[in-house]
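Chapter summary example.
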Amino acid sequence: MKKKRSFRRIFKLIYLKVIRINDSPEKIAKSFALGVFIGIFPTFGIGGILALILAKILKLNYIASVLGTFIMNYFTSPIFWSLSYFLGSLILEGKVNFRFLREGEIKYFALTYILGNFIVSVLFSFFSYFVIKLAITKYRRKKEERKRPLLGNKSIY
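The structure predicted for these 157 residues follows.
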């Protein structure tokens, strides 16, 4: 129960930070999607730094790209690892393989995992782009509606 609350709290915190960034919805969504890709793809602990460097090179939002890397955390890592291996196995062998590694199979395992992980990273990046862009657009529209006086479509200004 506590893990569920803390996961929900982390998700809500990231969501609120992203939608309140002062930049265009497209740029924030692209930045976040970059962070999601880097977060899911195995970067061996340098994901945040890599997100900052790529955001600078691509002239994207630093904060959104770093926040996107938090998609990979203690709660979601096993899900992404499993999904990546199963997808890679499905592509390379035509079926999901649940066997244990035998001696000399580490290269095959790595290839299977990286292939699946690349596809999972790309898919989640595209998905997150559209979700974040939609969330920011809706948030800003509601915020703008709250600012307007309650006179229907007519403005007093």
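To summarize the output: DSSP finds six helices and no strands in the chain.
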